[in-house]
Automatic annotation (TrEMBL):
<dbReference type="GO" id="GO:0003678">
    <property type="term" value="F:DNA helicase activity"/>
</dbReference>
<dbReference type="Pfam" id="PF09382">
    <property type="entry name" value="RQC"/>
</dbReference>
<dbReference type="InterPro" id="IPR044876">
    <property type="entry name" value="HRDC_dom_sf"/>
</dbReference>
<dbReference type="InterPro" id="IPR004589">
    <property type="entry name" value="DNA_helicase_ATP-dep_RecQ"/>
</dbReference>
<keyword id="KW-0378">Hydrolase</keyword>
<comment type="similarity">
    <text>Belongs to the helicase family. RecQ subfamily.</text>
</comment>
<dbReference type="InterPro" id="IPR027417">
    <property type="entry name" value="P-loop_NTPase"/>
</dbReference>
<keyword id="KW-0233">DNA recombination</keyword>
<dbReference type="InterPro" id="IPR006293">
    <property type="entry name" value="DNA_helicase_ATP-dep_RecQ_bac"/>
</dbReference>
<keyword id="KW-0227">DNA damage</keyword>
<keyword id="KW-0413">Isomerase</keyword>
<keyword id="KW-0067">ATP-binding</keyword>
<feature type="domain" description="HRDC">
    <location>
        <begin position="542"/>
        <end position="620"/>
    </location>
</feature>
<dbReference type="InterPro" id="IPR001650">
    <property type="entry name" value="Helicase_C-like"/>
</dbReference>
<keyword id="KW-0347">Helicase</keyword>
<keyword id="KW-0547">Nucleotide-binding</keyword>
<dbReference type="InterPro" id="IPR014001">
    <property type="entry name" value="Helicase_ATP-bd"/>
</dbReference>
Length: 620
């Protein structure tokens, strides 16, 4: 959908439209555009400046790659924030036969010189650079002399101080554009709320561009949240339910990546740790393994991910609560980019909420920025604790109305609300009577009437609140206390103690000036453990088709290793699924497979057709 009030995108000329679709099929191997792509591409081909907000997995890069291949002349300059992201895109494009290159500090001198030679000869269609590289000596003047047909700014949210990945060098891109002679510009991002979108437009465009905001919905992603109770076991159960698939687990601390990876490895999972504290060569080696192999689970900090465009990641888990919905959405968006089913799990607890709040309070930022970051954190906490459809709440944050999805954890299991004022008053009274300095576990012991050494030594078994909540289990009271923290009824005591204190809201509830509604606490329904086959793309195939799919995956892995390339650069899972269904045994039939363009057909088509024919003969 274009921005409200904007005129509809004019259709391109029939000849240009025909040419664009021919390129889509012959180069990229697709018969049609994904939802939303055609509108953006039409605006680009019509010469408009465009700002497009599209969900991860929707094919944003196609919106500047296809016009670059359709143009009669000139080069598209792509600004990208990470070397890994640039190298990944160049690798995919060259595998399709598209003349593309990157100039960056990680290249050899010969590699950078060859890119310049190709540019000067007019052979390059796309050049990828970082904003920092554009600030280097003579780079802009040399590019201006060569001539830039189009400027594409990827991950455009990096330009905004309100975005979750702010990069100061992105702020210079408006001046860069002017110094390049103001070429047509397209900016793209997957994660930007209204505030961030307005800032991006102001920072990058001297005049209002065509703004296209498409649905943020990723219907192929299964959304699931769970309060931390046995986090190591909860993570292990989730990962093992998708054993044999590629996945990412995000944690908030470097040490935790090592601990979780080791724990999963002991359970037979091929898990690797990744964080900024590791040697760069080791990080590169682990990233390559993740890209090249079919079943690696990467346990990482947020240092891993933006530069990874692996389409067949089947699950993303958060071992700790993300700090914002934008960050959460960006990270789960790395699953299921091929459009096939993928799964997510987010664990959260009161300690996560407290840590995130402290991090914001300790930042050296102005009061307005702090207020906005607290608002975003509160939105993330509300998503964790919501009682309504998870997907509906997520989309509402981005300003998109929707109906309950019927498929998230809350839609499947159902959650009800109840008047929790009396329960809250019991908790708040216990906190007040114990001096406002004890943690959730101790308060829950008092409420349930649990006699232990700490309760007896402190005389808390003599309090009026001792045992007033014996009708509920400790787990229930811990959940209520967490919700009270999430709603702002209690806060952290301070540095001297790691307990809870009453806030003004808490006092109002305790003394009957305010009522409180919370989520009813119920035993979590047992989740059906999926077999490894269900956790993969193969869930869409029959048993016989799945056997062929696994055979083709093994062949793909052999070819990728021989070429020292990521497996999906041979063919993504989505293409192998189509092969398993259609069973093409010659090049003519192979052309009907989604994702098989002319270059891939020439390079791999006969190998896969022969493998399918041999498999079918052996399994009659």
């Amino acid at each position: 959908m274009t921005q409200a009030g904007a005129a509809q995108v004019q259709p391109v000329s029939p000849a240009l439209a025909q040419r664009a679709r021919a390129v889509l099929k012959s180069v990229f191997g697709y018969d049609d555009f994904r939802p939303g792509q055609d509108e953006v591409i039409a605006a680009v081909l019509n010469g408009e400046n465009v700002f497009a907000v599209m969900p991860t997995g929707s094919g944003k890069s196609m919106c500047y790659q296809l016009p670059a291949m359709t143009d009669d002349g000139g080069m598209t300059l792509v600004v990208s924030p990470l070397v890994a992201l640039m190298r990944d895109q160049v690798g995919q494009l060259t595998a399709l036969g598209v003349p593309a290159a990157t100039i960056n500090s990680a290249n050899t001198d010969d590699g950078n010189r060859e890119a310049w030679r190709m540019m000067r000869r007019g052979e390059l269609k796309l050049l990828f650079v970082s904003p920092e590289k554009l600030a280097g000596d003579n780079m802009l003047s040399a590019l201006r002399d060569i001539g830039i047909r189009r400027l594409a700014i990827d991950e455009a949210h990096c330009v905004s101080q309100w975005g979750h990945d702010f990069r100061p060098d992105y702020r210079n891109l408006r001046q860069v554009r002017e110094q390049l002679g103001s070429p047509q510009t397209i900016a793209l991002t997957a994660t930007a709320d209204r505030t961030t979108r307005a800032d991006i437009v102001q920072q990058l465009f001297p005049e209002e561009p065509r703004v296209v905001v498409h649905s943020f919905d990723r219907p192929n992603l299964d959304l699931r949240f769970a309060a931390k109770e046995r986090p190591a076991s909860q993570l292990a159960e989730f990962v093992l339910s998708h054993k044999g698939a590629s996945g990412i687990i995000y944690t908030s601390a470097r040490k935790r990546t090592e601990e979780i990876a080791e724990s999963l490895s002991q359970k037979g999972v091929r898990a690797l740790a990744y964080h900024a504290g590791l040697d760069q060569a080791l990080r590169g080696e682990r990233q390559d393994r993740f890209l090249q192999e079919n079943d690696i689970v990467m346990v990482a900090t947020v240092a891993f991910g933006m530069g990874i465009n692996k389409p067949d990641v089947r699950f993303v888990a958060h071992a700790d609560m993300p700090g914002s919905i934008e960050g959460y959405y960006q990270e789960i968006g790395r699953a299921g980019r091929d459009g096939l089913p993928a799964w997510t799990l987010t664990l959260y607890g009161a300690s996560d909420m407290a840590l995130r709040r402290r991090q914001i309070d300790e930042k050296d930022i102005d009061d307005e920025r702090r207020r906005i970051e607290h608002r975003r954190l509160n939105a993330m906490i509300e998503l964790c604790e919501t009682a309504t459809c998870r997907r509906q709440a997520l989309l509402a944050y981005f300003g998109e109305a929707s109906e309950p999805c019927g498929g998230c954890d809350l839609c499947r299991g159902g959650v009800s609300l109840y008047d929790a004022t009396i329960d809250a008053q019991k908790v708040l009274s216990a906190i007040a009577r114990t001096g406002q300095r004890f943690g959730a576990a101790h308060i829950a012991d008092i409420l349930t009437g649990t006699e232990n050494e700490a309760v007896s030594r402190l005389g808390h078994d003599k309090l009026k609140t001792f045992g007033v909540g014996a009708d509920k289990g400790k787990r229930t009271w811990l959940t209520i206390i967490r919700q009270l923290f999430a709603t702002g009824a209690v806060g952290e005591t301070g540095e001297a103690y790691s307990g809870y204190r009453l806030t003004q809201k808490g006092e109002d509830i305790l003394f009957g000036r305010e009522k409180l509604t919370l989520r009813a606490v119920a035993e979590e329904p047992r989740r059906r453990r999926d077999s490894p086959r269900t956790g993969e793309a193969a869930s869409l195939l029959t048993e016989a088709e799945n056997a062929l799919f696994q055979h083709l995956r093994s062949l793909r892995l052999e070819l990728a290793k021989a070429e020292n390339a990521a497996a999906y650069m041979v063919f993504p899972d989505r293409t192998l699924v189509d092969m398993a269904r259609l069973k093409p045994t010659d090049l003519y039939a192979m052309r009907m497979v989604q994702g098989v363009g002319e270059h891939k057909l020439e390079r791999y088509g006969q190998t896969f057709a022969d493998a399918i024919a041999a498999f079918l003969r052996e399994n009659r």
